[in-house]
Amino acid sequence: MTETQALLEALLSAPGVSGDEGPAALAAKALLPAAQWVKISPVGSLIAQLSPPRPNKSCLLLTAHLDQIGLVVTHPPEKGFVRASCVGGVDRRMAAGARVEIDTPQGPLPGVVTSTPPHLQSGEPKLPESTLLIDLGGLPEDESLHPRPGMTGRFMLEPTRLLGTRYTAPALDNRAGCAAVVAGALGLSARSPDFGVILALTAAEETGGAGGATAAFGLDITHAVVVDMSMAATGFEPPHKAGKLGGGPMVGFAPALHYNFALALERLAAELGIATEREVMASATGTDSEAIAKSCGGIKTALLSIPLRYMHTAAETLELEDIAQTARLLSAIGEETLC
Ligand SMILES: [Zn+2]
User: Fold this and answer.
1) With contact defined as beta carbons under 8 Å apart, do 27 and 14 qualify?
2) Distance from the alpha carbon of residue 174 to the mean position of ligand 1, in angstroms
3) Measured in angstroms, how far is the CA atom of residue 103 from the centroid of ligand 1?
4) Which residues have CB under 8 Å from 247's CB, separation 6+?
5) What CATH number did the domain enclosing 276 receive?
6) How remote is the CA of residue 25 from the centroid of ligand 1, in Å?
7) How far apart (Å, rounded) are the C-alpha atoms in residues 112 and 127?
8) Alpha carbons 339 and 330: distance in angstroms, whole number
9) I need a labelling partner for 178 at 20 to 30 A (CA). Which of 6, 21, 30, 86 fits?
């Protein structure tokens, strides 16, 4: 197992559905003994200092969202079934018959999303409703163990290494980005840079971005690199805007992003022999970037996206090497990159 896979699996080991990121934040915190301080912000983001800010020097924020899409229980359970709504942009096409877990304080309760077999449906099979009926197989006798409205849940699939260094699991969006920024921030701090390095794993990106909007508050951040996921093509669809698995990080160009900072990251990647692709967005990036760029007095913000197939399903698929190369690029950032 590569270091990247081990780090990714440590980050995938705990749930963190938007608004309920606590367990995932604790799992991430355990990876940061090198930090000078670590705190959980009031909205649930994990923020850590890896290199102290210096007067008249840059201060770099490396950030990725920690939360994941999932489910929230909407009604008390009934006859061994419970209703739950999708949290974030779940691809509901995969919901029918999907394995899920509801996270109760006593531990996860397994369940299956109900599905009417095609044999019993007339016409084309329908897309599952946004409120799903989940079969728990019964209910624990002890009522205190029952799932309650407001508890979150997740779509489950065993993380699996495919051939080569391809990897498939739920929540790779954006634990893969978290893995890249954690490894990048640790790599940077090991070089004792003469500028500040702050790490933020933000809450609630999939549901409005409260974590991104508040991550830089009270910290004298001058520059930020946001790491998130973007679409990777399979090669079988008609050509459209998508990245390539194994093509390295995608450098974002968008109105909210700092043009020269993006160019500096491209130059640094070229010097290191790291392949990159350009991702051009004419308006919003669909990430924390906009919120971070306009927070505090304004922050020069760059976006690196890791290519991902089957986004917002339980079988998100990526190339582990793209995470490793993104981390390598982040850990090589120097004062000259922070233009
Ligand atoms: Zn994301």
Assistant:
1) yes
2) 5
3) 21
4) 275, 276, 277, 307, 322
5) 3.40.630.10
6) 16
7) 16
8) 15
9) 86
Residue 262 falls inside a structural domain: yes
Based on the domain organization, do 327 and 213 belong to the same domain?
yes
- pTM here is 0.96
96 and 63 assigned to the same domain: no
Give 172 Cα–ligand 1 centroid separation in angstroms: 9
Question: Which residue type does 132 have?
Answer: L
The answer to whether residues 227 and 308 touch, using CB atoms and an 8 Å cutoff, is no
Residues in the chain: 339
Q: Give 65 Cα–ligand 1 centroid separation in angstroms.
A: 7
pLDDT in tens, 66-89: 999 999 999 999 999 999 999 999
Q: Which two tokens stand for residue 320?
A: 């582990």
Kindly write down the DSSP assignment for every residue of 107-134, as one continuous string.
EEEEEEE----GGG--SSPPPPPSEEEE
Residue 337 lies in a domain: no
Residues lining ion ligand 1 (Cβ < 5 A) are: 173-174, 228
Q: Are 70 and 155 in contact (CB under 8 A)?
A: yes
- Helix count (H) and strand count (E) of the chain? 7, 17
Q: How far is the CA of 23 from the centre of ligand 1 (A)?
A: 18
Residue pLDDT, tens place only, 131-155: 899 999 999 888 888 999 999 999 9
Strand order in the sheet with 160-161: 160-161, 166-169, 316-319
